[in-house]
Amino acid sequence: MLRAYPHYRRCDEATIERMIDGDLKEQPLPWLSGKSPRHGKEGLDVEARRLPADGPRAAKLRQYANARRRDSAGKKAD
Question: pLDDT band at 67, cuts 50/70/90?
Fold first, then answer.
């Protein structure tokens, strides 16, 4: 979900990939109010847990948050 915003801001795919999983994920971005992409992903995880159990948007955010938790758990195990 965080990939959509840089795409909207007309970032190229290589830069978006660096922001999400590369060397730019810790760099503050002016269009994220000076926050890093990692901070944005963590915010999406928190919001997904706060949403009511019904609705397509809630389900999509929960799915994203669960995938992020699985990814980070897998990386810690390596």
Answer: confident
